[in-house]
Amino acid sequence: MNPISSVYMPRAIFYGYDSFKQVAVETRKLGKRALIISDKVMENLGVVDECKSMLNEEEINCTTYLGIDSEPIDIFVNEALEICKQNNCDVIIALGGGSCIDTGKAVAVIATNGGDISDFMGNKKIADKKAIPLIAIPTTAGTGSEATDVTVITNTKNDVKMMIKQPTFLPEIAIVDPTLTLSSPKHITSATGVDALTHAIEAYISRRSHPFTDTLALSAIKLIYENIEEVYKNGSNLAAREKMSLGALKAGIAFSNASVCLVHGMSRPIGALFHVPHGVSNAMLLPAILEFSKSACIDRLASVGLFIKPELSGYSSEEIANIVVQEIKKLCFNLNIPNMKEWGIKKQELDNVVGKMAKDAIESGSPSNNPRIPTEEEIIELYQGCFDYDMGEGINESNNVIHKN
Fold first, then answer.
1. 288-324 pLDDT, tens per residue?
2. pLDDT of residue 229
3. Which structural domain range is residue 23 located in?
4. Distance CA 27, CA 58 (A)
5. Residue 171: inside a domain
6. CATH number for the domain including 281?
């Protein structure tokens, strides 16, 4: 008999073509003074102005914070919070990638609960007061942050990416419009897509997975696996973009309720210390960590393989698990995912901080959800192995499956 499990997600989710047009109607139900948290890219593309125009039509006052630049940091949170307070905002609209949404979550919670975002790390402070209502509108198919109760903010004082998970950080509304992802360039499409795939895979192999999250995770894996290369090669394919957006959304709900594992635990220190975008750092690690974890989750990986490739039904679980790992590796190779060396990280730089990275990874808690729980020494070895990991090595093995006798 399974233990009691729980599922948290936004109160309402709107998804599909032109669902962005719901923003003003939904905002009006929640308040009268909105803060739009976004970035210069969305401003230059005209998306911020489009949002403001729709809000104005509903007679909603709005102001903006457009200071988000790459990964979210505590400085962005404090700056946006000040604008929120000065304008007495009663609704927050986070419009952009995961960085904008994570910043919006932090602002929404601190505005009513007080303190600094670092106070919530490790649940030292619990957000027991309801947050300002947050409408999350992703413009990439990746983080799934629009549907999670997790925010990841870098503490600039100690270079630690704080992974904070509490129900109060969950957005009130998620609006997932694939048309907003059409402007996403190839390198962001690939990185955020592999990020979403990582969420789905880790949710499925997590020690905290349960039947509800399994269903979402498997569906997300299939959607992303079958469409990510197409949107990378042909970014204007809206049908494929829609499937990627839906896959990222499902993956977000899945991992928010089942938790992520070792990839995310090791990814955050790379981002904090070397300023590598979250999606890229996850992608750098995924194939090698799947190889490391494989022996402890053969049946789960085999289930993934049979779900995305039913023609493998005649092979053993171990053979299918091997094929899955090789398929993921081949996917990263085809998407031109770099290793740490190719990104520009120097080996000496890594060696100087790899001990801290391993400790920070363990302290995040995510590695303890992994099927194979690593020691600190094994994490150090994995970092060093991923430094110049060859995504192309052996990628044809899944096409040359062992012949049955």
1. 999 999 999 999 999 999 999 999 999 999 999 999 9
2. 97
3. 12-181
4. 9
5. yes
6. 1.20.1090.10
Q: 173 phi and psi, to 5 degrees?
A: -130, 140
Among 243, 263, 235, 397, CA closest to 330: 397
Q: Is residue 135, in this structure, part of any structural domain at all? A: yes
Burial readout 264-289 (b: 16 or more C-beta within 10 A, e: otherwise): bbbbbbbbbbbebbbbbbbbbbbbbb
The verdict on 171 and 216 lying in the same domain is no
Task: Locate 378 and state its tokens.
Answer: 């094994």
- Contact by Cβ (8 Å): 339, 239: no
Q: Give the single-character DSSP code of 84.
A: H
C-alpha 370/C-alpha 261 separation (Å) is 5
Helix (H, G, I), strand (E, B) or coil at 37: strand
Indicate whether 405 pLDDT > 50.
no
173 and 136 fall within a common domain: yes
Measured between alpha carbons, how far is 284 from 331 in angstroms, rounded to an integer? 12
Strand runs (DSSP E) across 196-241, as ranges?
none
pLDDT mean over 87-102: 97
Residue 6 lies in a domain: no
Q: What is the total count of domains within the chain?
A: 2
CA distance 275 to 73: 11
Residues 358 and 252 in one domain: yes
- Print burial letters for 91-129: b (CB count within 10 Å at least 16), e (below 16): bbbbbbbbbbbbbbbbbbbbbebeeebbebbeeebebee
